[in-house]
Amino acid sequence: ADIVESGESGLFFEPEVPLRLCVGLFRLRGDKSTYENLRRNCLREAAKYDRLNLARQMLKVLGEVDNDKN
User: More exposed terminus of the chain, fewer Cβ within 10 Å: N or C?
Assistant: First the structure.
């Protein structure tokens, strides 16, 4: 939920309350602006979790740690 809320990339609902999911879906269907904002934000946020990007970040950190040792 934190990732979705902080990135404004989706609508949060309690899984135990399926009616909330329905309400959210109808909201997106009826509010094109909210839909487009969430869509755009979702694509932006997804790039942060791309495996290739994460691997590059990890290699950068490992390189910095290695440089600190020398």
Answer: C
Residues 6+ apart with CB under 8 A from 7: 41, 42, 44, 45
CA 31 remoteness from chain centre: 20
* Structure tokens given for 14: 């309690």
**Tokens standing for residue 7:** 């990135």
Per residue in 17-44, pLDDT (tens digit) is 999 999 999 999 999 999 999 999 999 9
CA angle 29, 33, 34 (to 5 degrees): 70
Distance CA 4, CA 29 (A): 19
Cβ–Cβ under 8 Å, residues 53 and 47:
yes
